[in-house]
Structures are given as C-alpha cells and as structure tokens.
Amino acid sequence: MFTARAAAPLLIVSLAGLPSALACPITDSTTTTLITGTSDDGEASSGGSESAASSTSAGGPGCSAPSSVCGPSYGTVKRVIDGDTIELTNGLRIRYLNINAPESGQDSLECFGLEAKDFNTAWVEGEQVCLHYDDVECADKYDRLLAYVETAEGEVNIEMVEQGFACAKYVGPSGEDRKAEFEAVETLARNSKLGLWEMCDPSVCDF
After folding, report:
1. How many domains does the chain have?
2. Residue 153, Cβ neighbours under 10 Å: how many?
C-alpha cells in the first residue's frame, strides 16, 4: 500500500509481487541494471548488463520495460494534471491505462477529484517513472500516451483503483489483457468502501 513519503536515498526495492513484465528495479549508483528503450529526453539507453550510472546519477530508474514504438520507457514527471494524467519534463502527456479518476478541474470538479489528484501527486510528481505500453494503440484522441506507470513502490494505475482513488475503466483496444484484473480490484475497493466508494455516489464512476 502506498503512503506519502519524505525524500530518502534510493534503495533496492523488491517487487516480487508484481508480474515480471512490470518489474522496474530501482538502483543506487553502485548497482548494475538493464536499461532498454529511450528516456523522455530522447536519449537512447543501452541493452545488456552494464553500468546504469548515466541514469542513476539523475535519480532515474533502471527500467526492464521493453522498448516500444509508442514512447520512452521511462521519464521524469514534471507535473500531475489530475488523478489519471501526468506530464513529463519533455512535454509528453501520459494517460493511465485502464482507469479513470474523478475530475479535479475548477470547471469540472467531481467528488473525490482533488483527493485523487493529491494521491497521484504525492506518489509521482518530480519522480522518474517506468512506462509500460500495450502497443495496441499508443495514444488517445487527445494525443496522450496510454501507459501503465510504475515507481519503486509499485504500479500507480492499479494502486489508484485498489485504494479507491479511481475507477476501473477500459477503453479499447489497449489494456484488454488486464481489463478483468482492474475490474476485480475495483470490486474489492467498492465492497470495502474505500476512498470514493465511501464518500461519493457510485454514479461518479458512470463515465
């Protein structure tokens, strides 16, 4: 379970509970990692086992995510737009796959929207994150890249739903292989009355 935390030196974090395809080891400057794909500043990263000093010196994760035609395999979060959308330092916007959080804008504020944005902000803003794509469809109609976003503490998408800060939302074709997983997690959160399921009318998820 994620909790907001103060800045601390990066440590190796076990992600054994995650699917292997989502592993994103975070290393310190003495650790050898495998980095693939490209960073959000467009610099190609190298495959094979070699020093990750160029990444870890900037506080970045060594991402095991495969390189993708959709976009970079990792990036630094410049700002959090809302509970399900972030912007990287290079200007790319990332829309979290398989979830939808209540709106938090002044003109479109929904129940639990600010809480969802705050939770997302505490987790990822200013951090380097791994980006995992479905590769079925790279972007939505607003040109936001569709991805699962991961930090040393786990995958943000699934945690937002698990803690009741977002609803499971499948918009095909991307994300179909994990649709049932997200829906099951939402059911648990709903039955436990977590987050928005306690504070809001269930219709907040009727998108």
Report:
1. 1
2. 17
